[in-house]
Specification:
The structure is a homodimer. Chain A is α/β, with parallel strands linked by helices. The first copy, chain A, is built from eleven helices and 19 strands. Chain A has helices at about 35-40, 85-90, 130-135, 135-150, 165-175, 185-190, 205, 225-230, 255-260, 270-280, 300-305; strands spanning about 1-5, 10-15, 25-35, 50, 55-60, 70-75, 80, 100, 115, 120-125, 155-160, 180-185, 200, 215-220, 235-240, 250, 260-265, 290-295, 310-315. The first copy, chain A, is globular, with a radius of gyration of 19 Å. At the A-B interface, strand 15, strand 16, helix 9 and strand 17 of A face strand 15, strand 16, helix 9 and strand 17 of B.
Chain lengths: ~325, ~325
């Protein structure tokens, strides 16, 4: 079985087909997406080694529950203990014993077959294409914002960053009827959502919008985004941190105190909300796909994914 | 009229007695407290020049409403426009046009007489002594935490810092029945609340309590506090930033995102809650008073307030 492995360097390896045991299912991967977290891992952050990849859609080949076999599924990436304080609250995503697909102590989706616990899998309704379903995980991460922060028609909301995650967040938040602004550096990327009910604003223009937004979502993936986000948020407003980049930020916390800003870290979300949006055709993530390569060209796919201006690159085992 | 003025240096000046006009009242100051913010201002932060001081209790000498004259009062420090978006929401503390007593474009309380708008004043019930009432402003700042964050008996809460503000916050939070821990460097300061229902823990011991608290209140007034606070808070927990010090903090924001921490900036609070606690005798702020000096010894009072181990220093005009 071919797999794209990171272990101080990225390479294609031939690995044994995994064996599902206990609560685990065996899933044949149809498509998998390259995320910025994968790129960060290949820079040596997160300390992960193994098969990369956590965004996928696949077909169940073996499962404890026989009716699951043959179903098309997507999978929550955090495999949890199900008994701790967090799991009992439904926060398996924060289980301290968790493994995370392609990120933490669990091989990922850039291979022909993967395994995940049965409770992590969600059947994909027929109306959702593979090319849309493969975005379920990052769309769920965008939906997580709505579980953490109250956003309604009365709120001025800015999404900072026109990369993959920023565009998906803009798509999701546009469905709340809030007064939405997407701020980015690249006209071509901003145009991906030109038919959505939102304003598109260039990064340099946004600097003039100090203290204008009730909620600012930082999704630039760069330290500069933090400073601009703090500038844009109103007193008593909320700054949502969405990108997990690894860099030191230097800042003076006094304005957060004086203006009573709330900063909310936001990571993975519930798949139900994401599948509901996809099922209704309310958002259009497949627009982000720019390249689809076979898995054996995984190294080339990672090169493409790192080029400026490139949005989503998919792999097909 | 004697006044303690900061204008690149601290000095006692003889100023004309202020004249109250419009909505303003004239208040004769009985006692005023030196706060860490005053010390920060004398280091040149905040860019304020004028009469310092924002914690006071006094007697109304002149007011638009005649019945106020002769009353003993404390005063909210933010004087607001009353018409903007924030004022209409009851958030005068965030009015962009505000002046702030002894902090922003308004002379403060370290003088014989001050002026504040009538709506800023709160009568002090007879059962509260001057020495307690002078703490109303910082106690309100402690109570603000309870307006922003839900804290109940099921929550493990840590207050980081055994300075003036940390001790007042510990006193206030101890009345919520939460499971409270006060973390500090100085046994003598921690002992100020030894009869309160809380655990006292030395700073170096606290480093071993990683991911133990649902809520951590950072009140150390130092950049090191931020790093320890992030270490102590549980995944999905809340970090309340309470001290306004001016220094660059360098940090990696990834753990805030991965653990979905919420960081809440917290400044001034409502006086009603503070006066209610004082009226019930539920907290004992006068324990913090270590020196009371006449106003003409204001420079000496500031020297004392900056000495290690010294808690509250009061001035009497």
């Amino acid at each position: 079985m071919k797999a794209l492995v990171f272990d101080s360097e990225l390479r294609i390896e031939d690995l044994p087909k995994p064996v599902a045991s206990g609560r685990e299912c065996l899933v044949r991967v149809l498509k998998a997406g390259i995320c910025n977290t994968d790129l960060e891992i290949t820079k040596g952050y997160f300390g992960f080694t193994g098969v990369l990849g956590h965004e996928f859609v696949g077909i169940v080949e073996a499962a404890p529950t026989a009716s699951l076999v043959g179903q098309r599924v997507v999978g929550e990436i955090n495999a949890a203990c199900q008994v701790c304080e967090y799991c009992r609250k439904g926060l398996q995503r924060h289980c301290p014993e968790r493994t995370v697909l392609g990120i933490l102590r669990r091989d990922g989706a850039f291979r022909e077959f993967l395994t995940l616990p049965e409770e992590n899998l969600h059947a994909v309704p027929d109306g959702i294409s593979d090319e849309e379903a493969v975005f379920t995980e990052p769309i769920a991460a965008a939906c997580e914002i709505l579980d953490q922060v109250s956003i309604g028609p009365e709120h001025h909301v800015a999404v900072l960053g026109d990369g993959k995650l920023g565009l998906l967040i803009a798509m999701v938040l546009s469905r709340t009827s809030c007064q939405l602004t997407l701020i980015g550096k690249h006209a071509a990327k901003l145009d991906v959502v030109k038919d959505y009910p939102l304003q598109r604003v260039a990064m340099e223009v946004a600097r003039g919008l100090a203290r204008s937004f009730d909620v600012v979502v930082e999704a630039t993936g760069s330290p500069q985004g933090w400073e601009l986000a703090l500038r844009l948020v109103k007193p008593r407003g909320t700054l949502v941190l969405k990108s997990t980049f690894h860099a030191q930020i230097a800042f003076n916390p006094a304005p957060i105190v004086v203006d009573e800003i709330t900063v909310v870290g936001s990571r993975c979300g519930r798949f139900e909300a994401a599948l509901a949006l996809l099922g209704k055709g309310a958002i259009h993530p497949a627009r982000l796909v720019q390249h689809t390569l076979p898995l054996h060209q995984g190294l080339r796919a990672f090169e493409l994914a790192q080029q400026p201006g490139v949005l989503k690159v998919l792999l097909e085992p």
